[in-house]
Structures are given as structure tokens and as C-alpha cells.
Amino acid sequence: MIVLGIESSCDETGVALFDSEKGLLAHVLHSQVELHAEYGGVVPELASRDHIRYLVPLMEQVLQQAGITRSEIEGVAYTAGPGLIGALMSGACVGRSLAWALGVPAQEVHHMEGHLLAPMLEENPPQFPFVALLVSGGHTLLAYVTGVGQYEILGQSLDDAAGEAFDKTAKMLGLSYPGGPILAKLAEQGRAGAYKFPRPMTDRPGLDFSFSGLKTFALNTWHDLQAESEGQCEKLTQGRADVARAFEEAVVDTLSIKCRRALRQTHCKTLVIAGGVGANQHLRQQLAAMVKKEGGELYYPRTEFCTDNGAMIAYVGCLRLMAGESKALSIDARARWPMDELPAIRA
Ligand code: KG4
Ligand code: ZN
What we know:
Blueprint: E1 2-7, E2 12-19, E3 23-31, H1 33-37, H2 44-66, E4 75-81, H3 85-102, E5 106-110, H4 111-117, E6 130-135, E7 140-147, E8 150-156, H5 162-172, H6 179-187, H7 212-229, H8 233-266, E9 270-274, H9 281-293, E10 297-299, H10 311-322
Parallel strand pairs: 1-4, 4-5, 6-9, 9-10
Antiparallel strand pairs: 1-2, 2-3, 6-7, 7-8
Helix pairs in contact: 2-3, 4-10, 5-6, 5-7, 5-8, 6-8, 7-8, 8-9
5'-O-[(R)-(carboxyoxy)(hydroxy)phosphoryl]adenosine binds next to α5 and α6.
């Protein structure tokens, strides 16, 4: 079955074609980074308009790349939530309309399920069961995954998501949008041990996270540094990199401690990282070392499939359509959508 997948939940427009027999045929992405950069963050109305502008040309492009025609599409999948409602509605309307025009079924896809199953697109995919660390701009959660749609949430962030904390801290340090990768780059110039930040909620049992205090800790450290340096440019430049490094180390350490705890609690040896923050090299390195020590294995998608993309949506849509899921002709999108409400697919 060939499924066209559409991702439009936030600031990337992604379109892909997945074939249940041949795998991923093609995928294309348009990033809105430049559009939102001057505002320092995503402007929802501009995001929706831009999705509308790019969806049809991207669909043409992906068909051309895959070398197939519109009439060969056998199903359409689109991200129905969670995300920005206007942005979601753009993809949902285009996806539903295309499916209706072609006379094929349309399938709603949960954005986080897309992230969670993105490592399945790789050559050496993880086997169920596994523990998944989902770290994106909107979510931070640990789940015990026993199959498609079988997600036991072990813990999640009580306040900011890890990516959100990266983005807000970057903004406080005067870095541009999108903050996460820019802060990570700056952290490479930071000196080890210049500052020691707390590892929130690691001193008590449980698998929940809290990153908002860490952000405040970074802000206070940065303000103290600004006051102390009395305008000495060099000191301030190095200090900013030191703060970035201390912040990144604290987030990475905290995530690693909780992942180890989750693996031990579930007696599971396989860890999967997914979502935008999963692109962070230090996080990957530290988790790889931790998992190796535990005698297990770490899996993650290629970097371009850590952040938002259409491939993960086409893949999940294809799985669900093949399992016989279908819905009456309606256009639904949900800004909030708990992942444990998803129906399981029995193998
Ligand atoms: O999964 P994603 O593309 O979108 C959401 O579903 O939220 O994740 C985006 C998040 C942003 O917060 C971004 O700053 C963060 O992932 N991110 C990173 C890195 N690359 C992206 N955070 C830390 N280090 C990175 N290298
Ligand atoms: Zn995402």
C-alpha cells in the first residue's frame, strides 16, 4: 500500500510517500525557520498560511521524486494533533480533500506516535518491547512500548518540555530562534565545570521531569555574570558559552538518569530516543554510554527524522490503514491529544 503523509503541526511542512512493500519512497520538507526568526518564535497564524502555501507544491515534488503518479496513492495520512490548531487544520483539510478526490481512505496520525515510531524507518529498527524517551519542543515523556499503539506512560514533564527549556534558555541568553540547536552549538565552546546546575527531580524516586527551574537557574546565573563582568565583552562571551554548557549538561544528565531508571524498572534493555532534542549529539553520546553500561542497546532515527518530518506520518498512517482503521468523512484536528488514548494494533 502506498500512503502519502502530511506533517503540519508546527513550523515545518513535511510530505512523504511510504510503501508498505518498498519502504520510504521519498520525503520533502519546507522549514519555516526564516519566516519566524524575526519574531523570536513561531507565530501560529503565519505558520498556518505558510503550510497552505507549500503543501500542494511539496506534494507534487514528492511524487516526482518517487517517480509515481497521483493515481498510485492508496491512502493519505495527516497529523491530526497535538500541535497548533490552525497549522493542523491546514494539513487536515488538504489531506482529507486529496483523499476524497482520489477516492482513497484518509488516516489521522498522532504527532508523537510519529516521533516514537520514526526509528522504525531505519535499516536496523528496534524490536518491541522498548523504553522510549520522547523529547521534543512540546513533550518530554518516557513510555514503555510493547507494540504499535501500546504505550504505557512511565513519566513526563510536569512543566516545560526539554526542547521548550532549551528554546527559552537560548532566548534569555540572547540567542536566535530556533534556540535548541544554537544553544547546543554554543555549549561546545563552554568550559567543563565552570558552573554546576541542579539535576531536577533526580534525588527522589519516580520518572517525571521538571525543567522550568533549570531555566530560571540559567537566567539567574546569566544575570549575575552580566553584573560581575561590568561590560567586559570577552568575559561575557565566554561566560555565556559556559552557561550554555552547564545547562545542556544538566538536561542531558537528568534525561540519562531517568532513562536508566526506566530501563531498570521495566527490566528492558532497549532504549529509543525520538523527537527534536534527540538530534542533540551530547544526549546521544551520554545515553549510548549509559545503555552500554546497562548491557543494552540504543536506537534513534537519523537526525532529519528526529525533528518534524512527513516520513514518520506516512509510516504510521500506513500501519494504521493496513490494520483496517478508518473514519467517517470528517476533518478533525486536536491541539491536545493524550497518547495513551490511541488504539492498539495487534500483530
Ligand atoms: O520534534 P520537534 O521538531 O518539534 C516538536 O514536535 O516540538 O522538536 C523541536 C525541538 C525544539 O525545541 C528544538 O529547539 C529542539 O527540538 N532541538 C534541539 C536540537 N535540535 C532541535 N535541542 C537541543 N539540541 C539540538 N541539537
Ligand atoms: Zn515534533
